[in-house]
Amino acid sequence: MTDTSPRTDVDARYSSPGAVATPWPEAVQRLAAAELYWLSTVRPDGRPHVTPLLGVWRDGALHFATGAGERKALNLAENPYVVLTTGVNTWSEGCDLVVEGEAVRVTDVARLRELAGAWEGKYGAAWRFEVREDGAFQDKYGPAFVFAVAPRTAFGFGKGEPFSQTRWRFT
């Protein structure tokens, strides 16, 4: 889905002297390992909406699920552009990541089965999904749409000396 060799730059304005760019493969490892992400969408009236959610990184994209009637899904029906963030709430260590892109609904049943296995493998049996033939996950709460967000632009904020801000641009 996403170019695996993005253009990578460190922004000296927001980085310690001598800081170097975080390599994209390191950012991908952090994206894949994160337990919680924050999704930012835009309501139809233009107001922002931010919510925490679970997700899995597969094949160059971050995937998340949401019920068809949830605010996230309603927002995405009007505007598919999103920001996903993850990181740690500390100042002097870690790396915060920001992924900007378009949320594209995944409906291929074989792909959804693979993603359902990834969810369960990452989060355990509490997050087991059945896959519906109409292209959605199903759990005890009802159907859930699955979306993939391949980065168009991503940022990494390295915290602690040296502080760094890396930008990755994808074609």
From TrEMBL:
Keywords: Oxidoreductase. The keyword Oxidoreductase applies. InterPro entries: F420H2_bilvrd_red/Heme_oxyg, Pyridox_Oxase_N, Split_barrel_FMN-bd. Pfam families: PNPOx_N. Residues 25-129 form the Pyridoxamine 5'-phosphate oxidase N-terminal domain. This is Pyridoxamine 5'-phosphate oxidase family protein. It comes from Streptomyces kaempferi.
